[in-house]
Amino acid sequence: MEKLRGLAWSFGSNIDTDQIIPARYCNTFDPDTLADHAMEGADPDFAQRVAPGDIIVAGRNFGCGSSREAAPLALKAAGVGAVIAHSFGRLFYRNAVNIGLYISICRAACESIETGEELVIDPSASLIQSLTTGRAYRCESLPAYVQEIVDSGGMVNYVKARLAKSKD
After folding, report:
1. Dihedral sign, CA of 39, 65, 22, 27?
2. Rounded to whole angstroms, how far apart are CA atoms 124 and 94?
3. pLDDT digit string (tens) for 99-158?
4. What is the set of domains in the chain, with CATH numbers?
5. C-alpha dist (Å) from residue 82 to 76, 110, 152, 163, 166
6. Which of 26, 71, 126, 131 could form a disulfide with 17, with the two C-beta atoms 3.0–4.6 Å apart?
């Protein structure tokens, strides 16, 4: 996977799926509609201000709550390049992998990175660097098979590639 670069958006702990994409918008899986309301419950202006490649940095239990597949889809559609957190709700973690949204656990980064810092993430080295402060953070590596799914753009693309390969 290529390096990811963007500005940090810092959020606290226990950001649940209703804050990521409120239930009233979950009657559609249209990415553009979901993108317009990403993080609305935590920051009503987020969707209008986030830029492609920006990175969410959060505390503990990011994405807790219901098994809302629309939550990581809303973030990815809004242009979020990655989510770095102290820990993730397990259903959000799996849903993010399934759609190919890069996620990583990096406790030290989450304790010190602030909104607006320019970040570069090197997934292959499990490293985050703040170009703003000069600090670097080593993150937990994704398991190889999970990284392969994310690199493929999600589970559907991963399975399609595997099936095509098996026909050769």
Report:
1. positive
2. 20
3. 999 999 999 999 999 999 999 999 999 999 999 999 999 999 999 999 999 999 999 999
4. 4-167 (3.20.19.10)
5. 8, 13, 15, 27, 31
6. 71
User: Does 12 score more than 80 pLDDT?
Assistant: yes
Task: Tell me which amino acid residue 83 is.
Answer: V
* SS3 call for 150: helix
Could you tell me the two tokens for 135?
A: 């600090």
Whole-prediction pTM: 0.94
Burial 68-87 (b: 16+ CB within 10 A, else e): bbbbbbbbbbbebbbbbbbb
At a CB cut-off of 8 Å and minimum separation 6, what does 83 contact? 55, 56, 58, 62, 63, 72, 75, 96, 101, 102, 103, 104
Q: Are 12 and 58 in contact (CB under 8 A)?
A: yes
Count of all residues that appear for the chain in the document = 168
